[in-house]
Amino acid sequence: MFKKVLTSQGFLSYLYLSLIAAIVISSMLYGNLLEGNIGSYPSYTFLSELIDYPFIILVPIAITSAFIVSLLIAYKNNIFKFNRSHLVFIGTLFLILLYMIFIISFKDYEHAFIDQNIVSIANTKYKVYSILSFYLSLLTIYIVIKLVKPIKGYKSFFAIILGIILVYGFSAIIYSLINESAKYQDFKFLDYLTEKNYANLINSFFNVGNSFGHLMYFCVLASFLFSFLYRKYCFILLALFFTPFVVFSGCRAAMISTFFVYIFYIIYTYIRSYHYSKFAFEVYSLVLLMIILAIIFDATLKPLFIFETNGGESYTLVNLIAKLTNTFLSDRYLLLVNMSKNNLPIDYIFGFGYGLAYLVARSYDGVYYYHNSFYEILMTGGIPYFIFISGIYLYIAYYIFKKGLKTKRYNIIAIFIMISLSECFYGLCESMPILFNNYFGVINSLFIVVLPKLFLEGIVEDDKCSITSVNIFSLRISSTTKTISSN
To answer: For residue 153, what pLDDT band results from cuts at 50, 70 and 90?
Structure first.
């Protein structure tokens, strides 16, 4: 009985997906440890002493070994095939690796430092670390594009992954309620929105400001993914549970991005209501019309919505929106200008190199990164790397729209648009670029790149591939294995 379970397709599929997940998570931890400590900026002081050549070199070797095993299992079970497009993709990854090695090794970045007393020059050890971390990011890209396929049990496996994120969010909330109850009692929403007081932020068990807000925002997105991908629409209620804690975090980027998620959700449900119930559509239209008219009246004739802070300041709705727009666009823009005032034109063309771009940002007033995902990508690898990342996203978007419209899976198209647009705004305020080898890069890649494409593939493909063997030393393929086309 036990042997039958171990050799079942469901168990072997879970084993394969778990191996892939372990590779991606290990790479992410390796990359985040680099970025958290580079330039004498130790975010992980209890781990920073590990960063030496044995650790830097041996960990990627171990991860690569596991990757080769997963590659052989995938090839043996027909999860992919080496055709022309596949070889072109591998060649592209190899060229971008050579390009980044060259930039990290030879590109000058010292002139861009704002304060050279704050950040130490990265030595050879950190450059080697940066190259290997970037190499692991390319392995992750290969995995999410080529090795993650809708094999038996994939839905339940990724439900567990999303569930882990939600449980992590629950634990952070419980911890904060126990240890920061006074902050909740003193919380004043409008005061935090207009003038941030970092001393009163809800941090939970995080040491870095806004991290709690980022997690709560990701939990909202995870709830929406559950709702749309699995068609379990009750999970919208779970998103509503996490939303107040996005506000309590004081992270204004998370607040407004979450607000946009709900706006996009309202638009989607409004459009879909026309197809399901004409009466619901008419009621929906009436309510939306009343809201729009109230906003227009408030902005042009007489303010209907007045907001007051504890300091006695009053804001109309228009003034409050203008202040927030100025905070997130003008202030962030000035931050980028100040951090980049020593940049040369060549820096915008080629960047500073993966990992090493943090040196420039951290030389300005202790800022952790550029606070702009698009600019972060540009400063990391310049125009070539920006085109590379954009190309992958556009490929995913093209696939989702093409296949989603063909199969009428509007729910998957909708969740892709909702998360992409909200992340675009988030990306204007924080550095969370997809496909980077760090926490934000991996989780955003999961939400935007992996899950929508994977669930569409599971619908589009008539034949699903199965893991029938994990014996990489045998080339025999079971006759019951079905093949999924390589994308």
So the answer is: confident
